[in-house]
Amino acid sequence: MTMYEKLEAFNALACVLLERLNPVSSGDVSGMRQQWPAAPDEYFAFMRERGHGEIKEDDCALSLLTIQPTLCPAVDYFGDEGFYKDGPYESGAKGEVWLFGWDSAGTAFGFDSGDNWQLLEIDNMRWITRLDLSFRQFVEGMLVCYPQRPISFANGAWRDSGDVSYTLSDYA
């Protein structure tokens, strides 16, 4: 069994939400692993098994998340280094930030390479939120919390930014 084989069990809409993803070739994933050897294995497994593209309900819907075919420097996406400055709630990034995707409102998601590849959310003000999730928990949580996004996972439950708790039993 592969790591992301059973994502459809997390939400009745998962088949539709994930149908626009295109797996990345093993050769391309190997190249990414060489370029970013410390990046999470869960990210590379997702790229190989599910891939890049838009996660959304239908062609007319706004994208919940657009996953890029490879990691992108946050500086290139935002056009500045504002995410290194301390925000009102959390300190700025500690190392080079590599984005894997963004939503339709411009909020970006990626990893802080200077903070043990911590999963980050960066809003359009460049304020960082460190997510208390592994990459896999983030992907699974997007389906469980849909249409909200998860910010943490503990004791079998995901939480969104409104402090609403979600478990798989909520949908069984």
Short overview:
It is built from 5 helices and 10 strands, in the order αβααββαββββαβββ.
Write up this protein:
- By secondary structure, the chain is α+β, with helices and mostly antiparallel strands.
- It contains five helices and ten strands.
- A hairpin with a 5-residue loop joins strand 5 (108-112) and strand 6 (118-122).
- It has helices at residues 14-18, 26-35, 41-49, 74-78, 135-144, and strands at residues 21-22, 52-55, 65-73, 97-102, 108-112, 118-122, 128-130, 150-154, 157-160, 165-166.
- The strands form two sheets. Strands 1-2-3-4-5-6-7 form a seven-stranded antiparallel beta sheet. The protein has a three-stranded antiparallel beta sheet with strand order 8-9-10, covered by helices on one side.
- It is 23% helix and 26% strand.
- It is globular.
- It has a single domain, classed as 3-Layer(aba) Sandwich (SMI1/KNR4-like).
- This is SMI1/KNR4 family protein.
- It comes from Pseudomonas azotoformans.
Strand order of the largest sheet: 1-2-3-4-5-6-7
Q: Name the helix and strand elements from N-terminus to C-terminus, one letter apiece.
A: HEHHEEHEEEEHEEE
**Roughly what percent helix?**
10-25%
Question: Could you tell me the mean pLDDT?
Answer: 94
Task: Give me the count of strands.
Answer: 10
Instruction: Describe the sheet with the most strands.
Output: 7 strands, antiparallel
Amino- and carboxy-terminal Cα gap: 22 Å
CATH architecture: 3-Layer(aba) Sandwich
Which residue ranges are poorly predicted, with pLDDT under 50 across at least 5 consecutive positions?
none
Which shape, going by the Cα principal axes? globular
CATH class: Alpha Beta
Beta-strand percentage range: 25-35%
Write down the Rg: 15 Å
Q: Give the domain tally.
A: 1
